[in-house]
Design a protein that fits this description.
The structure is a homodimer. By secondary structure, chain A is an alpha+beta fold. The first copy, chain A, is built from 9 helices and 8 strands. The structure holds a DNA duplex.
DNA sequence: TGAAATCGTTCACTTAAGTTAAGAAATGAA
DNA sequence: TTCATTTCTTAACTTAAGTGAACGATTTCA
């Protein structure tokens, strides 16, 4: 699961490093020096589609940042998978159990082959010594994340399932392509059959 | 709307100061000196039931912390109020517009007579000079808030309206007493009539 | 105090989601 | 490639939420 060199099976011109630094640039500015330090920390991991990174009941200290690919967070409730979030390029994911050291209540798995940055609080000391701005960046990211999270929640609450699907089509059209329907449907808060029906309904309307 | 002395119309033994310091103690420890500095900043406000603190379209830099009472956040969509959150004792509320200086997309009003701490980023310099731990505390609070927010969102997505109501009954039974039904219902993502029906259904079940 | 507005409930009806089942299509593994 | 599994769709039926309207009860306030 570990890769020494960050390579990409597609022939996109942007390297993983570029993606990472472009992202960081949104929050703080880095010198070349700092960039090199960051790369030297060897935080990159390549993970195969289907891999389960975190299981219910498991304790973990790992936090993830998606450079390429897609992670899925899901619960198993009454034997049924309930997907509550997807994490794609530029998304950060700190499992709840990292903060309180409790066993996780949910699973995290790879929807696609994925390239990640994996960090954990134990590295904090080392990272912080070599890369002091890390803390500031994390805080800015957390604030932004919280704000976006709240807006998403509001949007979810104030919408019908159909409206939620249309919003998704607007805001994250890629997800609808890359994620299996039955995972999408529980993300929208409905059953797979209802999503099928709902899609058929929308298609019917648009035809007139 | 401003009060010099923080008094309380009930005869609870805990003063507003006690409530505040008990809360802060969960995150950081304060010396008597620091407590006095904090009180001297004059951040307390008393606000009447029904007061609208923030309107759609309005810009504001104020952040709120509820010491006593209840705030409500709501949107007006197609002429209809959609309540998405309640903030009661010990809840912090940073309107989205504070961060990005955009006009607000929602309203914030007082469900009850409420005692608040009001801060804004412009005070950051002064507060930080007099009270350096403030920053750390905010960060810890933000992290906890984000975690709780995510769990709430997951719970909402994976539950039916009836289950959401039962959860609310478990987790925030006070809300059901203090908040009008029609505001609660939209918080649960349903119409007032549906909430009435749902409550009747539950009562029917419990009678057997 | 009295009139008006707001609020909660109920009812009848409509619409959409849940459930169960079946079959077609796509995917994966031997 | 073939067989088995998973995934997606469709259908019929059930259940619950949305809608519009009516009716007291409560609250507001002039």
């Amino acid at each position: 699961m570990v890769v020494a060199h960050i390579t990409d099976d597609s022939n996109n011109s942007k390297t993983m490093q570029d993606i990472l630094f472009d992202f960081i640039a949104k929050y703080i500015s880095l010198t070349e020096e700092e960039k090199n330090v960051l790369l030297s920390l060897d935080l990159f991991r390549s993970v195969k589609k289907g891999t389960i990174l975190l299981k219910e009941g498991q304790k973990s200290r790992d936090e993830y940042f998606v450079l390429k690919g897609c992670l899925r967070k899901y619960y198993i409730i009454d034997g049924e998978e309930k997907t509550t979030a997807f994490f794609t390029e530029m998304d950060a994911l700190t499992p709840h159990c990292v903060k309180n050291n409790d066993p996780s209540e949910y699973f995290i798995s790879c929807v696609e082959n994925t390239i990640l940055i994996v960090t954990n609080p134990d590295m904090g000391v080392e990272v912080n010594a070599k890369f002091p701005k890390f803390d500031l960046m994390c805080r800015l990211m957390a604030e932004e994340l919280l704000a976006r999270q709240q807006i998403n929640f509001d949007e979810f609450k104030t919408s019908s399932p159909e409206q939620r699907y249309l919003n998704l089509l607007q805001n994250r059209p890629d997800l609808i392509q890359r994620v299996p329907q039955h995972q999408l449907s529980s993300y929208l808060g409905i059953k797979p059959q209802s999503l099928s029906r709902l899609r058929a309904r929308i298609l019917e309307k648009s035809k007139g």
